Amino acid sequence: MDAKLVLITGVCLAPICCAQGLDEAVAPATFVRPPANASPKLQPSPKLPSLRPTPAPAAARPAQPVGAPLPSLTRGPKQPPQPVAPAPPRLLVPRALPPTQTDHGTDDALARAFDVEGLSLAMTPRPANDGVVFVSDAAVRLASAESAVLAPELAQTLAEVEELAGRATAIGDLNDVIERCRAPGRSDKYKVRHSRLAKAASWAFNRRGEVRSDRGEEHAAYEDFDQAIKIDPANAAALHNRGCTLAAYGRHDAALVDFGRAITLGHDPAVAYANRGELLLSIGRLNQAEADFTEALKAEPDRVACLAGRASALQGQGRVAEAVRDLNQAIAIDPQCAESYAGRGALYAAAGYFEQAIADFDAALLHDAECVAAYKSFAWLLATCHDADFRDPTKAVECARRALRLGDAGDPMLLDAAAAAHAAAGDFAQAVKLQQQASLVASPQLREEFDKRHELYRAGKTYTQSD
Predict the structure, then answer these.
(1) Could you tell me where the beta strands, DSSP code E, fall in 245-331?
(2) Using an 8 Å Cβ cutoff, are 181 and 161 in contact?
(3) Where are the alpha helices (DSSP H) in 334-411?
(4) Helix 269-282 with 304-316: angle, nearest 10 deg
(5) pLDDT for 215-236, tens place per residue?
(6) What residues pair up with 272 in beta bridges, in sequence order?
(7) pLDDT surpassing 50 at residue 340
(8) What is the pLDDT at residue 30?
(9) Alpha carbons 343 and 9: distance in angstroms, whole number
(10) What is the mean pLDDT of residues 413-440?
(11) pTM (2 d.p.)
């Protein structure tokens, strides 16, 4: 689910006053093109040829390049195993979260039935081989040695819940866990029962929310995460997941609160800090975003997405040399990430290294013929470069068309690049139309600049970046 940071989209390639040492950071690299069969994903459909003969493509892949779409939020720690790993919601399409529905009254009743006062039930995650994190067996094991001192009926219920939770792989299984956790009353006799079953119920609601999110049922997923937190306010995984959903629906302040609580409760820092960093980046809080990506990298130094995210934050602050270094490191870790090449290419172009920029855009499209970030930045360079040797209006228009077809047609930076391409090709009517659309969805900071270009196109003039 996705909102984009204007200053870091990789389309705006106006010259930047580079910090000392930039030449060293962005010096031409040696590009080694990977074999055609390097990866099953590398079967690109026809792509635009480069404008210049370029050395073989280089190695390197950062996770979200500067200029690439904002990465999706990752749900993070997953609890009992499930058939398919969940696909997290994205941050780029803010929508209004509808009022809480009233058709889940039984779940509200369940929350009231549990004795959760003062309860601290954060789950203990353990990483799996595939990178997905599941709740540890110990966390799910509810019928422990303590069961020996419980009433036989309660001990049996705890054992049944343990068994159900241990093999739950679908919503129906999770519904069974939730149903079995229902408490018959609130007498003193059941206080231990309530708190321990509350732990299981909170876990089951959170897990069911993850499954529903995977299915695209975000409203239902939100309510499950919310219910899990009502039952157990210390469920860090549920807080993190609710934060992801709130961020996807534009509830940024509430999302930041949930991310903060999840981090305080010890949720996986590589995931929690990274997701909060992405959110901060999307709303322009660059210093804080940089700090969060740095914390995430302390927990997982090779996390490419965090290197790319930090590069975006650094670029937005004008620290281009540092941004390039982060992208170089990301590419060294993962040489097949198209977005990383696209991000570095945008930085090269901004610094005036046009040959290297084109080589990176070529490499990005070699790895992924549908890389929107590469098409967008390539279109901007081909349409607006101050060096006429690098301008090619026809190819710029084709790049822009592909980017609009494959990407978010409501991205103001993409619309701006497409408008520049059409103006360069002499189609001022289309340029005016696209620039108007860009201004309508642009942030206040960009709107003034966009309006100036709009006037240029109305006057039949093209836009070219100055030296």
Answers:
(1) none
(2) yes
(3) 338-351, 354-367, 372-384, 393-406
(4) 30
(5) 999 999 999 999 999 989 999 9
(6) none
(7) yes
(8) 32
(9) 8
(10) 96
(11) 0.66
